[in-house]
């Protein structure tokens, strides 16, 4: 055990294909039995790229839990990445904004860790980001290079809902950006406009029409890596964490596993029940600022009759509640996520049609889920959560701190949210 001030605590590491670190998993299996635990909180981080950063989050979040006997904690470590100009409140300071065009300091190194063996592509992206040439051909080159970093589109069979379909949020939403069927200028301009609505650039930094579009191109790079990490979260959840929890259930059948995750980590833990052995359920599932489709859990997509959200069967594998904590103060999910989703899927949506189709549950909660309760945070804490099924919890009264462009997306280390995790599972034994 190491890494945080809470005890007992374990970390469990997965590679991008969902393979667990066997020594860590064996230590967790032994430890749960040795400690005679009745409950285990399993938490997955979002867009972080180092173990120390993720462990810092776990230390801050788990410290908000009350001291309970026979309660343990497990932090999931999975290979994601974080742009270094994105601050994480309370445990990681915001990097100073660069005073000139280019990638934020450390971002090139983070890209190299997330996309090994792509040094040449990353180097060229960094060069173009630094120069920002007033040349449409170079802008097209930049967007093309971004596309090469992410995984190819799913096979036709995947898009028709067979093998591999579980890595998408809905049958209509691709996992990776095919965005980019529009021209480079159109795509980058859309991101530039969104960024200006959240945080106007420093005077003179991005002057000129094409220079302004380059600001959107840098956000395109961020969103391109975002979509690859989103895909990876689903893979790690179903192929990695799910089977690991199955082993845990076999070793300690009375243990209640409470899954929680932030951002992409919420997506990761949501896919984990799909990897469980038949007949095994987790106790609860709590999603904090979940960075995936608000239609993921629906049994019927309102814009695609006859189709369901990719996680429509997940609540049946949860004994307690599936609690979605959302906040209107989350700028990243409220503004940038829908743009990336629209550009990746439906060209008509560029005209402003069907805006609700592309939202994220961390900004407005789960949608089109029958009998899904909706509670303000204060009411949830006072009166409790449903014993089972889905519930939206408006956490905006505490999840509200953070500047542009991400807003309150990472403002999750609150005792109130720790209580929601406990309440979703019906409390601790």
Overview of the molecule:
An eight-stranded parallel sheet has the order 1-3-2-4-5-6-8-7, sandwiched between helices. Mean pLDDT is 82; it is low at 87-99, 153-168, 170-180 and 346-354. It is globular and about 65 Å long. Helix 9 (264-271) links the parallel strand 4 and strand 5 (284-288). The protein has 13 helices and eight strands. It is α/β, with parallel strands linked by helices. 39% of the residues lie in helices and 11% in strands.
Distance between the termini: 23 Å
As laid out across the biggest beta sheet, the strand order is 1-3-2-4-5-6-8-7
Number of extended strands: 8
Return the average pLDDT rounded to an integer.
Answer: 82
Helix content: 25-40%
Biggest sheet record: 8 strands, parallel
Number of helices: 13
β-strand percent reads 5-15%
Low-pLDDT segments, ≥5 res: 87-99, 153-168, 170-180, 346-354
**Rg from C-alpha positions?**
21 Å
Instruction: Classify the secondary structure makeup into a structural class.
Output: alpha/beta
Outline type: globular
List SSEs in N-to-C order.
EHEHEHHHHHHEHEEHHEHEH
């Amino acid at each position: 055990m190491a890494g945080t001030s809470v005890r007992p605590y374990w970390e469990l590491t997965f590679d991008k294909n969902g393979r667990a670190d066997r020594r860590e998993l064996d230590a967790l299996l032994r430890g749960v039995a040795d400690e005679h635990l009745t409950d285990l909180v399993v938490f997955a981080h979002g867009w972080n790229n180092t173990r120390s950063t993720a462990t810092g989050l776990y230390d801050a979040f788990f410290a908000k839990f009350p001291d309970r006997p026979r309660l343990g904690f497990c932090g999931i470590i999975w290979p994601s990445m974080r742009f270094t100009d994105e601050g994480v409140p309370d445990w990681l300071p915001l990097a100073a904004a660069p005073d000139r065009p280019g990638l934020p300091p450390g971002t090139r190194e983070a890209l190299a860790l997330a996309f090994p063996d792509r040094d040449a592509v990353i180097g060229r992206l960094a060069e173009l980001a630094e120069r920002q040439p007033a040349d449409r051909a170079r802008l097209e080159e930049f967007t093309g290079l971004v596309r090469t970093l992410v995984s190819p589109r799913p096979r036709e069979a995947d898009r028709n809902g067979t093998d591999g379909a579980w890595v998408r949020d809905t049958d209509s939403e691709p996992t990776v950006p095919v965005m980019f069927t529009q021209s480079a200028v159109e795509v980058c301009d859309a991101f530039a406009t969104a960024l200006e609505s959240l945080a106007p650039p420093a005077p003179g930094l991005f002057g000129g029409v094409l220079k302004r579009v380059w600001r959107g191109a840098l956000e395109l790079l961020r969103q391109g890596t975002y979509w690859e990490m989103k895909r990876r979260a689903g893979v790690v959840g179903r192929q990695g964490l799910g089977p690991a929890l199955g082993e845990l259930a076999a070793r300690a059948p009375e243990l209640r596993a409470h899954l929680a995750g932030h951002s992409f980590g919420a997506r990761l833990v949501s896919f984990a029940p799909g990897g469980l052995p038949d007949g095994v359920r987790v106790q609860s599932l709590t999603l904090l600022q979940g960075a995936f489709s608000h239609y993921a859990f629906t049994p019927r997509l309102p814009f695609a009759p006859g189709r369901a959200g990719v996680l429509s069967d997940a609540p049946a594998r949860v004994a307690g509640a599936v609690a979605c904590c959302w906040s209107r103060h989350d700028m990243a999910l409220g503004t940038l996520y829908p743009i990336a989703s629209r550009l990746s899927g439906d060209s008509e949506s560029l005209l402003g049609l069907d805006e609700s189709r592309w939202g994220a549950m961390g900004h407005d909660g789960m949608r089109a889920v029958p009998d899904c309760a909706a509670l303000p945070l204060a009411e949830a804490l006072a009166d409790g959560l449903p014993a089972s099924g889905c519930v939206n919890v408006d956490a905006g009264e505490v999840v509200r701190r953070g500047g542009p462009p991400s807003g309150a997306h990472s403002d999750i280390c609150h005792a109130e949210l720790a209580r929601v995790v406990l309440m979703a599972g019906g409390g601790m034994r």
